Amino acid sequence: MGRTVPLRPEVSRQVGEHLAAAGPEGVRFTSTWGSRDVLDVTLVRPELVAEVSADRAVDRGGVWRHPLRFKRLRLDVGLEDVPRFGQGPTAVVG
User: Which of 23, 32, 61, 92 is the most exposed place for a label (fewest CB within 10 A)?
Assistant: First the structure.
């Protein structure tokens, strides 16, 4: 699970069509530490595989130095086909 730069509206709609809520709605978070801005959030089940592009630069602690960029959904790949971070190949090619 992870995040990318904000998606373009048409890509956001495409991804949204494949998401399923993980539980009851009504979860709220603040937008950043120390912020009073509250975000209404719908948690989703982590069942989709997406292809992303990433700069290879990683800071200490394993955090990407630059944000990931969404390339496409991989509806042809299941979760069981994707190695966990740091285990196995760096990409799933299909």
Answer: 61
Which residues, 6 or more positions from 20, have their beta carbon under 8 angstroms from its beta carbon? Answer: 44, 45, 47
The conformation of residue 81, written as its DSSP 8-state character, comes to G
Contact assessment for residue 22 and residue 1, using Cβ atoms and an 8 Å cutoff: no
Q: Cβ(69)–Cβ(2) under 8 Å?
A: no
- Measured torsion, CA atoms of residues 70, 92, 61, 28, in degrees rounded to the nearest 10: 50
pTM score, whole prediction: 0.63
Cα torsion through 34, 38, 44, 48, rounded to 10: -60
Secondary structure E strands in 1-94: 27-30, 38-41, 50-53, 58-59, 63-64, 69-73
